[in-house]
Amino acid sequence: MELQAVMEKRRSIRNYNPERKVTKEQLDELIKAASYAPSWKNLQTSRYYCVLSENAVKEVREKCLPEFNQANSDGAGAYIVTTFVKGMVGFDKNTGSPVNEAGDGWGYYDLGLQNENLLLKAAELGLDTLVMGIRDGEALRELLNIPDSENVVSVIAVGYRGQEPPERPKRKELEVVAKFI
Question: Can you count the helices (H) and strands (E) in the chain?
Fold first, then answer.
């Protein structure tokens, strides 16, 4: 599938078909695609905790997501919890001090680049996703044994849509989002 078609096809899905399962091999492909994104000095500090077993998916949904995200992701075949290693990207390796005002913000930036690759690959494979930033980071840390050296960022539901989503909202005009100088 051509990149433009994948970008146009990809949607945030809030209704999943619980009968269709996600495989480890599919998650492997998503993580591999994520790894091709650029990162600060090629440090590759993004980390992915893939929750695939039916019991573990249920436990993450019930213990780590607020009610509305439990409902939004019900029936998803897997969750991918995204994190990045703290204090590396955006920092001088010799002094440990931030190289500019963004500091650890570069970790979020790198993870976002990688997550977009992951989402686009999912769409290419016929999988659907929903990125959820409202989650209980400490509950995820405890349940999945995520070390304190990593920032917990999001939970991505992965599965197959149960129904077609409403029409995509109109995108903002180019003149609103871009300034040409």
Answer: 7, 4
